[in-house]
Amino acid sequence: MNDTHLVTTNGASVGPLTSVSRPYAAQIRRFLDLLDGDSRWAFSLWRGPEGGHLMDIDLDRFAQSYMQSAGSAQAMVIEVRFIEDDGIARRYGVGRPHGDYTGEPAVSIPYRSDEAAVWVYPSEVFDAAEAAGIYDHYFHTDRVPADYVLRPLDAHGPGQHTSGSTS
């Protein structure tokens, strides 16, 4: 399999996701296991454009769709961004179904040495093991597994959500 995805760490360091040292799923898990909330606080996965070398990508045009996390291996959030059928980019927080999504999010996930935090619902906090399965599904399908819910993050009130995937 050719390398098709890129990874970004801490919003700056970009490189291809390779299977040279371990299979893709294990490589994704390794990236997530390394998150410590301090020196390693963010991870993103995104598909590069078809054709061409991944390192020749115009980063101002890509990544249009991605999955990303912030936090630590013990407590992280997962966010996805899709270009919807109407051509508009929308972001979603990933969560477990049947969680309490009423009121404002009350759980703080600190990152970047506690300089920043993301506020989420308890059902939106993941450890590296569970997150790795979600990322692996995204790697293969460009979608979130259907047994998770997506909470819109763009111009929507709290508590609104849809089931995983979007498309």
Give the gist of this structure.
The protein is an alpha+beta fold.
Structure write-up:
The protein has 167 residues and is α+β, with helices and mostly antiparallel strands. Helix content is 14%, strand content 31%. It contains 2 helices and 10 strands. The protein has helices at 24-33, 128-141, and strands spanning 5-9, 13-16, 42-47, 66-71, 76-83, 89-95, 107-111, 116-120, 149-152, 162-163. Strands 2-1-3-4-5-6-9-10 form an 8-stranded antiparallel sheet, covered by helices on one side. A two-stranded antiparallel sheet has the order 7-8. Helix 1 (24-33) crosses helix 2. The chain is globular and about 45 Å long. The two termini are 25 Å apart.
Topology diagram in text:
Blueprint: E1 5-9, E2 13-16, H1 24-33, E3 42-47, E4 66-71, E5 76-83, E6 89-95, E7 107-111, E8 116-120, H2 128-141, E9 149-152, E10 162-163
Antiparallel strand pairs: 1-2, 1-3, 3-4, 4-5, 5-6, 6-9, 7-8, 9-10
Helix pairs in contact: 1-2
Helix content: 10-25%
Major sheet strand order: 2-1-3-4-5-6-9-10
Q: What is the element string, with H for helices and E for strands?
A: EEHEEEEEEHEE
Q: Flag low-confidence runs.
A: 156-162
Number of helices: 2
Strand content: 25-35%
Search tags:
alpha+beta; two-stranded antiparallel ribbon; 10 strands; 14% helix; 167 residues; single chain; 2 helices
